[in-house]
Amino acid sequence: MALIAGVTAAVCWLAGPAAPDARARPPAPAATAPLGAPAPEGGAPGIDLVVPVALLATALSMAGYAYVTRRRRVRTRTTPHGGPALPREAELDERARRALVAADDAVRTSREELAWARAAHGEAAVKSAAEALAYAEGEVAAAFRLRQRLDDGHPEDGAARRAVLEEVVARCADAGRRLDEEAPAFDALRDLEGTAPAALAAAETAHRELTGRLSTAEAALTAMRGRYARSAAEPVAMAPEVARVRLEFAATALSGARTALTASAPASPPAPAADGTGAGAGGTGDPGPAGTDHSPAGRGGDPGPGSTRAPARGGTPGTGAGAGPDVTADPGPAGTRDGTAAGEGAGSGAGTHARATTPDPGPPPGGGATGSGRRAVVFLRAAEGALDQADQLVEAVDRRAVEIAGAAGRLPDALAEADADLAEARRLLEGAHGGAASAGGLRGRAARLESVVGDVRRAVDAGGYDPVDALRRLEEAGAALDEALGRDDGTRRARAFLEQALLAARSAAGAAEVYVTAHRGVVGSVARTRLAEARHHLAVAGAAADPREALADAQRADALARQAQALAEQDVRLRGAARGRPEASEAPEHPADGVDGVSGAVLGGILVGGAPDDDVPGCGRPGDGWPGGRGCPARFGGGGTRDRAGGDDCF
Hints:
- By secondary structure, the chain is mostly helical.
- The two termini are about 65 Å apart.
- The protein is built from 18 helices and 2 strands.
- The model is unreliable at about 20-45, about 75-80, about 265-370, about 580-590, about 590-595 and about 610-630 (pLDDT under 50).
């Protein structure tokens, strides 16, 4: 445009002055000027060209500058079509990582609170919320799959990578939007302010039963450590300790909820327990639940039969201490100093292992929509989140014990099959005389399996071995040899190897899942991505028709799950080291290491939405005390609603 304007101006300059003169003056007769006379008025023709040439040069310079600037803008475009500036790929990548963490946390929290609502109101009542959660889970799973593709180096093109990152962010946002849309209806369904007494009773019952089951889990962990190698119990080594911290936090939260409810309504006389064996809610003891700041619930109670099944979240209590935590009966040896804790035998195993659908006998008074009622809801939701995590941690230990026992039972048969495979491989190698069979890798694979069999037998004879790892090593080496043998019954053997691989993969994925859940306040997107990919491969392996393909997926799931837990543990260690607590690598949540219940709740993602803690968005800062610190209990919903209990009702 500048060039066109310059050329036009030059032409006008040349043509413009002559035209008026031609119209104004008549033609003059030709005359011959004397030799040496001065030139006629109007100047030389060369002088008339100076200005248009200068204009043309200026136009050319402007056009060149505009061309160079436009080329540079195209190469480093930041404003597409005049729109907002596009972030750099590194910024978009970080945004995608944070979106994945936030969306995954929202899904986990929503799943936990949905379970409480389902137990209280039934499956039909929570259908809409369950559908919203299923949609969000699908979107987040797809986002994790896209993230894994990027981590694997696909696609390589920069523009294509940006498109994938944008899709990750969009899917996470869509998952959160769907949960946010459902949050108001879900709140109306739960109506925690109106049903706080019943919800408190259910949570207190869950606390008592989990306390008993925790003792069983600790005993199981001790037995695993005594009988097997350290690696056998390593995936759940800290689970009981972390569960105890969560239960202590839940006990404090339940005490606060009961106090808030008592303050919101007139006091009521003590109500006897259903079986008459203890004081009901509202008794003369301290209002703290199952042990207040003196002690949580009794730690040595008999959990009764069935304690290794799904944990209780509010079943009907068995005999022992009264229905509520405010007990006037003799607390037994482990009671608190004021005799208010639930006794050693709080629940003798007669309780059901399901969330309560009816309130515990003797519910506390109150529950109106007052300030105290709202405060009680905050305490209640925090307690429910802590109980959910304690539930999963205790269950992880129980499940690991069962998996180890199952692997130990399979090991003799696996060793016998390995011996048979080795014998067949030796026959083939003897007949081949080091020819094609050896060149095809049979000799090397047979040597590897023989080495693994020898190592496993020596470990078993020594008494300290890891059954799951031994079965995994036999399966991997045996499957490789089976492929080299090329037998007609390869499909049958692949099915046998698949069972072993699935056992190891499910064990690794289950342990990693619980660890990420209980430390989700600091676990980053990489560990979560690997865990999501492990779950994907497990699902594919379970649905595959070809056992060989299923075996490959199961092996991949096993490797990814173990990698996910290692990365998650690294995130926790790095957070501890960043706070000047390198000992956190050994016991990341032991109270002696400076992590109290509130800090553990932040670490576990139970409290969110407070002042940012270092580089973790949405976390309350640990060590602020409770109440009076920062952070709110996470709720059902996406990023726009999951920390909706705000203001003065936060910690």
